[in-house]
Design brief:
Largest sheet: 6 strands, parallel
Oligomer: single chain
Shape: elongated
Strand content: 5-15%
Distance between the termini: 49 Å
Bound molecules: nicotinamide-adenine-dinucleotide
Helix content: 40-55%
Number of helices: 18
Structural class: alpha/beta
């Protein structure tokens, strides 16, 4: 497993769990050191236990030694990052470096599997990079390249991997297809979920999935903002449309905008591909613009209520991670919200159950931002409460205690976690996204 981040570590661990012998490689020596000492560098429910069990059983090991990694497996998964480049395209340098590293060293048949999210045509580039390395040392070792995009969700990654909705395999080599069927067979004992297709379609499928989900979110956010103006309640609308099986309930929650390592960069990368082909995806342009605006929707509500000058104000912030059950701060809406509040002179005291360490890294030294050890501690001397992440522990707070602690009885809820009537019954003013 080349790349031991969210995807590589979960994938490697789950493959070990069903009996495979897995060696996880990373260039980040600090990450590998943590794993070797029995630690887990990321927060992902259930992962630690699984890692420990498989390390103890001798099926899961970690290394920075690329020679060992290439020698280890007939299947070489590439699960490195594909961050956005300056122009929005996916930065392919890590994937291609990994491919070259394999090409340089392989001495027997290898199946090289792109698990990273990569633009259409990447398998060809990976194939060319490996072929070039082989040619430079006059080797004729056979290999196949497969696209196997990953659909796991951070925060439920282990469950998603162990019980996938589908596994997409893009390949044209029969041996490779057979090997992929075999390695995924333990995850689909109840019924077949493997979708085999051509490589380019597999590569596009991953972007299409994330773009569709991002579209649903932006659509609901825009609709929620309109509901505010119309004095309608988006929660009723959500149920009214979600109950239609053609629409479904999932991903219809309005909020503070999507974040994380995937949606923002994948929407950008797909737009970039489309632009290159002079087939701009107009819908995605709007999805992105709506999302950028949505990240500041709560701040707009704060300013509408308290005025534009927030000098001397302190806000208690519940939640920093881009969503619940993760410590991932990449593109988290909290970053835009903290920056906007600080720019208006406010101070922010933030609490998050797991993301504070990551947040400290992400924010660096921001004088206006400090951290609290509990949700209630964050309220101490705060003017108002701002809820940003939908953590379970925020769902049923003691509203009377909140009112007693706040200087002003104001709750700005970016996740629509509460029943407006309940919050108001406790004497609090409640501002949510598209709720009456
Ligand atoms: N995070 C998710 O929820 C998710 C879900 C589906 C798909 N993906 C995709 O999977 C890919 C990986 O995402 P991630 O979130 O796991 O990233 P990540 O940043 O958490 O992990 C990537 C790891 O690869 C390592 N790496 C980089 N170059 C390397 C090399 N040459 N050899 C060995 N290791 C190397 C990095 O040090 C890092 O630890 C991305 O393309 C992403 O879009 C992510």
């Amino acid at each position: 497993m080349i790349g031991t981040g969210y995807v590589g570590l979960v994938t490697g661990t789950c493959f070990a769990e069903v009996g495979n012998d897995v060696l996880c490689l990373d260039v980040d020596a600090a990450k590998i050191a943590i794993l070797k000492q029995g630690g887990v560098p990321i927060h992902e429910p259930g992962l630690e236990t699984l890692i420990r069990r498989n390390v103890d059983a001798g099926r899961l090991r970690f290394t920075t030694d690329i020679d060992a990694a290439v020698a280890h497996g007939a299947l070489q998964f590439i699960a490195v990052g594909t961050p956005p480049g300056e122009d929005g395209s996916a930065d392919m340098q890590y994937v291609l470096t990994a491919a070259r590293a394999i090409g340089k060293r392989m001495v027997d048949f290898k199946i090289v599997i792109d698990k990273s999210t990569v633009p259409v045509g990447t398998a060809d580039r990976v194939r060319a990079a490996i072929a070039e390395e082989l040619a430079s040392r006059a080797a004729v070792t056979p290999f196949a390249v497969v696209s196997n995009p990953e659909f796991l969700k951070e925060g439920a990654a282990v469950d998603d991997f162990m019980r996938p909705d589908r596994v997409v395999i893009g390949a044209d080599d029969e041996r490779a297809i057979a090997a992929m069927r075999k390695v995924y067979a333990p995850f689909m004992r109840n019924h077949e979920r493997l979708l085999v297709m051509d490589v380019r379609s597999a590569e596009l499928t991953k972007y299409a999935a994330n773009a569709m989900l991002a579209t649903r979110i932006s659509f609901m956010n825009e609709l929620a903002n309109l509901a505010d103006d119309l004095d309608a309640d988006i929660e009723h609308v959500r149920q009214g449309i979600g109950s239609d099986p053609r629409i479904g309930y999932q991903f219809l929650y309005p909020g503070v905008g999507y974040g994380g390592s995937c949606f923002p960069k994948d929407v950008k990368a797909l737009r970039h591909t489309a632009d290159q082909h002079r087939r701009p995806l107009k819908i995605l342009e709007a999805v992105e613009a709506a999302n950028d605006a949505q990240k500041l929707r709560l701040v707009e509500k704060i300013v509408a209520r308290l005025g534009g000058n927030l000098d001397g104000r302190t806000f208690a912030l519940w939640g920093l991670a881009f969503k619940a059950n993760t410590d991932d701060m990449r593109e988290a809406p909290s970053r835009a919200i903290v920056a906007a509040l600080a720019a208006r002179g406010a101070k922010v005291v933030a609490y998050d159950p797991v993301a504070i360490a990551e947040a400290k890294r992400a924010f660096g030294d921001v004088a206006a931002l400090s951290y609290a050890a509990s949700p209630m501690a964050a309220l101490d001397r705060a003017d108002a409460l701002v809820v940003i992440t939908e953590w379970k522990e925020f769902r049923s707070p003691d509203f009377d205690a909140i009112r007693r602690m706040l200087k002003e009885p104001l709750v700005f809820d970016g996740r629509n976690l509460y029943e407006p009537a309940t919050v108001r019954a406790a004497g609090l003013e409640y501002f949510a996204i598209g709720r009456r």
